[in-house]
Design a protein that fits this description.
Blueprint lengths: L2 E4 L14 E4 L2 E7 L14 H18 L7 E8 L5 H11 L6 E6 L9 E8 L1
Helix pairs in contact: 1-2
Length: about 130
């Protein structure tokens, strides 16, 4: 099995010993994307809507580096600091995934890196 590291400056750099994405056997695994604006290094906003939007934009950037789009996503996982933010996150999510939506899990996490409100990871296929 070969694997290819996916890396782009259009998404936040990894903050540890991991890759933004990995491709193996026609599948692309995008690491959890925090709501960090790669141009500034800061969170895109302080509310769940702004942070969910930036996390999804970061996911899109990693996928684009692999030559894919959100239409290639088959599974996503959304980690929320507070499950009460689910409805607001879901409104943003629905703007990004409009047809043939992927399978999804959404869970409340005890804590997220940098005290983010949301982190989103996906699996996509060619």
């Amino acid at each position: 099995m070969g694997k290819t590291v996916i890396s782009t400056q259009n998404a936040p750099a990894a903050i540890g010993p991991y890759s933004q994405g990995i491709e193996a056997n026609g599948m692309v695994f995008v690491s959890g994307q925090l709501p960090i604006d790669p141009a500034t290094g800061d969170f895109a906003g302080t509310d769940i809507s702004a942070q969910a939007e930036q996390s999804l934009k970061n996911v899109q950037s990693v996928l684009a580096e692999a030559g894919l789009t959100l239409a290639n996503v088959v599974k996503s996982t959304v980690f929320l600091k507070d499950i009460k933010d689910f409805a607001a996150m879901n409104e943003v999510y629905a703007r990004f995934f409009t047809e043939g939506c992927p399978a999804r899990s959404a869970v409340q996490a005890a804590a997220l890196p940098k005290d983010a409100l949301v982190e989103i990871e996906v699996i996509a296929v060619r």
